[in-house]
Automatic annotation (TrEMBL):
Region Disordered: start-end pairs: 1-30
Domain of life: Bacteria
Low complexity compositional bias, start-end: 20-30
Keywords: Membrane, Transmembrane, Transmembrane helix
InterPro entries recorded: Pra-immunoreactive, UCP021697
Transmembrane segments: 41-59, 71-95
The name this protein goes by in its record: RDD family protein
Bias (Gly residues) ranges: 8-19
Length: 142
């Protein structure tokens, strides 16, 4: 039986760890699987570029203003559409861990922690950043 690079035939990853999302009951790949790192990073870049463009065009481009626009894009997008523009463009969405829309409080909590950066840079075995863990959410593929 052929296996993916870095995974064993028993479905475990790399050095004996479980595949991302397995402990959460999420599929290995496809819809509702954990969004992988590359897709996440490109999504953040898309959101930051959009925030920079809005900040430059309307508000003078102050870095704090850009961060504020970035935060608004995330809070409003996650709370209403299930993802920021970058998430949606790249085929991702944010879900409550139990399933369903995250709602405004989870969206706000997740966004504040994302804007602090450090929690987003600390990941668990399921490739969820601390911002997702503390807000009870998971970023998955649509």
């Amino acid at each position: 039986m052929a296996s993916r690079a870095g995974t064993g035939s028993d479905g475990t990853a790399g050095a004996g760890g479980a595949l991302p999302g397995r402990r959460l009951g999420l599929p290995r790949d496809g819809s509702r699987s954990v969004a992988r790192v590359g897709r996440r990073l490109v999504g953040v870049v898309v959101d930051w570029l959009l925030a920079t463009l809005v900040s430059q065009a309307l508000l003078g481009g102050n870095p704090w203003t850009t961060l504020g626009v970035f935060a608004v894009l995330h809070v409003v997008g996650v709370a209403t559409l299930g993802g920021s523009p970058g998430h949606l463009l790249l085929g991702m969405r944010v879900l409550r861990l139990a399933g369903g829309w995250p709602g405004p409080l989870r969206a706000l909590t997740r966004t504040v922690l994302l804007c602090v950066v450090v929690p987003a840079a600390i990941w668990d075995a399921d490739q969820r950043g601390m911002h997702d863990r503390l807000s009870g959410t998971v970023l998955v593929r649509r």
